[in-house]
């Protein structure tokens, strides 16, 4: 006798997203600033930077006019360094031609172990860049787990991974409380248990203006901008704070605007001998790339690089 089953008899899969992400979406992951870098998203400067002149550069938050071809050449050299170290370099497609800051990709994406948070820039001159970024992420197969919305604004460089459970998040001119709350909620949803909240001071717009990781337990800081509460929590986690005090190299040379290729190995803007020596004295291997033209946009290597994949780091 044939048994007729009435109605639905389907049950959902209890597999968590992270366990099937690689198979269904792709190999995308980031829970640190120093795990071996495997894939990045960049925007090669296009026509949008060709109209930065003596008359309008300050309108776009540039510090000086920019030579477009020289800027492209410097970014290309950085991309070549990435590729020579086994990093896949992906580029944003169909970006707007009226957004000259679009090359600073770190502000537009915060990568996590389960996908990307697409950010919402704070200044009107950058709003809308995130659409092309979202389209590119989708075309690559990178899950977008959150897009900052409502009256929140948040830029990716206002957050910094310390380890899988710990993230520093700063409020300031580029991230308001509503934006930070959205990011914090999403991070806690994917297993981050320790959020270190801090204020980004008036003299910096992002965390990477005064702190950056160079190794699993080593953080370079500009000590006069790091709050005591933030520093104390990091020290309690066993993080060594390396104090960089050369203001000229920090602000005009963008010396702290480096990217770790792996623990203890960074690529940084050239022309910052004191900072380079400081890092080398700490056992960090330094690769230099000329960035002086890019720096006219008040950014450099870290600003131009959105991480898409880093290897997990063991902190044992």
TrEMBL record:
<dbReference type="Pfam" id="PF19420">
    <property type="entry name" value="DDAH_eukar"/>
</dbReference>
<protein>
    <submittedName>
        <fullName>Amidinotransferase</fullName>
    </submittedName>
</protein>
<dbReference type="GO" id="GO:0019546">
    <property type="term" value="P:L-arginine deiminase pathway"/>
</dbReference>
<dbReference type="GO" id="GO:0016740">
    <property type="term" value="F:transferase activity"/>
</dbReference>
<keyword id="KW-0808">Transferase</keyword>
<dbReference type="GO" id="GO:0016990">
    <property type="term" value="F:arginine deiminase activity"/>
</dbReference>
């Amino acid at each position: 006798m044939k048994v007729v089953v009435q109605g639905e008899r389907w049950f959902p899969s209890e597999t968590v997203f992270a366990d099937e992400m690689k198979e269904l979406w792709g190999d995308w992951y980031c829970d640190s600033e120093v795990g071996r870098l495997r894939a990045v998203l960049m925007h090669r400067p296009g026509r949008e930077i060709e109209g930065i002149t003596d008359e309008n550069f300050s309108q776009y938050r540039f510090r000086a006019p920019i030579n477009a071809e020289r800027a492209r050449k410097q970014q290309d050299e950085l991309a070549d360094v990435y590729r020579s170290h086994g990093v896949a370099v992906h580029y944003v497609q169909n970006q707007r031609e009226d957004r000259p800051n679009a090359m600073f990709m770190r502000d537009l994406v915060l990568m996590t172990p389960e996908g990307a948070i697409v950010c919402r820039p704070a200044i009107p001159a950058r709003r809308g860049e995130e659409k092309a970024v979202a389209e590119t992420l989708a075309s690559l197969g990178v899950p977008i787990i959150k897009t900052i919305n409502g009256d929140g604004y948040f830029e990716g460089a206002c957050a910094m991974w310390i380890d899988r459970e710990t993230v520093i998040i700063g409020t300031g001119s580029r991230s308001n409380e509503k934006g930070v709350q959205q990011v914090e909620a999403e991070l806690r949803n994917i297993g981050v248990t320790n959020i270190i909240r801090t204020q980004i001071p008036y003299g910096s717009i992002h965390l990477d203006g005064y702190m950056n990781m160079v190794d699993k337990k080593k953080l370079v800081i500009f000590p006069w901008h790091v709050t005591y509460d933030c520093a104390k929590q990091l020290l309690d986690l066993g993080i060594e704070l390396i104090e960089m005090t050369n203001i000229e190299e920090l602000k005009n040379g963008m010396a702290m605007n480096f990217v770790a290729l792996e623990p203890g190995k960074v690529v940084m803007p050239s022309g910052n001998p004191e900072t380079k020596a400081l890092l080398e004295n700490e056992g960090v291997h330094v690769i230099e790339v000329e960035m002086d033209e890019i720096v006219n946009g008040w950014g450099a290597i870290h600003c131009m690089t959105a991480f898409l994949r880093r290897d997990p780091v063991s902190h044992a």
